[in-house]
Amino acid sequence: MAAASALGYVFVVVISRALGPADYGGFSAFNSIGLVLAIPAGAFQVVYARRVARRGPPAFDLRLPLLVGSAVCLLTVVLSPALAHVTRVDSLLAPVLVGLGLPPLILNGALMGGLLGMRRIGTLSLAYVAIGTSRVLAALAASALGLGLTGALAVVTLASYVMAGTLWWLCRAEAHLEWSAPRGDRGAVFRTLYRSNSAIGVLMALTTVDVVLARYLLPPVESGEYALVSTLGRSPIWVTQFLALALIPTLATSGSPRTILRASGLVLGVCAVGTAVAAAAPEFWVGLLGGQAYSAAADLLLPYLALGTLLALAQVLVIAEMAQGRHVLTKVAWCAVAVEIILCLAFFHDSAIQVLTAAMVAAGLVVVVGLGELLFAARPAPASSAEPALAEPVIFSRTGPVDT
């Protein structure tokens, strides 16, 4: 996972320099949209890990992820004119390529879940590294060939299909296309996917919608600068994600608010240290990631790290609630995303800092409500042993800043 995260930053270094701020803003917006549309990949990973671990290879059926991937692809293609408008690109081919890249991403989730269920941890680790490496190679190819936004999306999509084929080959002895689960189990799979997707989706939306809004509302170059800084600014989420994972088994049995508050305090401390390091030389970190073309965005780094800190706290609070089988904060977070969109479209749309301010309001709302639940509400009852697994997709769905 650490290697995959590092490769994600290498990918950003290469592709941001190859495209320049104007095209990179569009590329980052499309990848943010793709992340949200590919949410089922994370849910499939956990569902298939549980099913294959419990039932063995007969449960390793690939028809459902292929069906879902095809449906999401078709939906994206149908919506391509709207997506092209939102991302301010002239070609419909770019959003179509995003849609075509979704089936292998969703299939990869099921395949990696199968590897986890079969306890092939070494192979799974290599798969994470291979996927990150394939994206870096795609970025290098786009840079060497002098490709623009559409060309870069094309080579990244091609890399996704290559990796899906590679993962299928690794699982070819166990994976199949025949649904062999009992009929009642099919309903359980669909219910788990639905609830997991909602939980994953709200965290994805909170961490990516501002990049899409920046692309829609700001000039192309400024949106690209915003997108690059967002990659650095969201680093608190990746760095503290292990704390959210550690909360799941503890809260499943105790449901202790003190545990959540201690974890939140630790997250705040880690983020404060990272922000202090960045504050010493923000121009250096922005230049290191994107080069001189993005130097004007250095002033955004510290405010974005404040947003990243709020998002890291929101991540812990949402996952902690899900670990107890509760979903109130998930609903609040969806409302916060809606508030962010309304604020940007109606009021905060004249500069990057205004878009960032709206994102901070949304993330802050989730944090305030989540902490309020802990400090003032009654202690929640522990959930049954079957519930915590619904929180796990959040962890598996993100492997660092692979896309933006």
TrEMBL record:
Chief location: membrane
Keywords: Cell membrane, Membrane, Transmembrane, Transmembrane helix
Subcellular location: Cell membrane
Classification via InterPro entries: Poly_Biosynth_Transport
Transmembrane parts of this sequence: 28-48, 60-80, 92-111, 123-145, 151-171, 192-217, 237-253, 260-281, 301-320, 332-349, 355-376
Membrane topology: Multi-pass membrane protein
Signal peptide region: none
Protein origin, superkingdom: Bacteria
Stated name of the protein: Polysaccharide biosynthesis protein
Organism: Ornithinibacter aureus
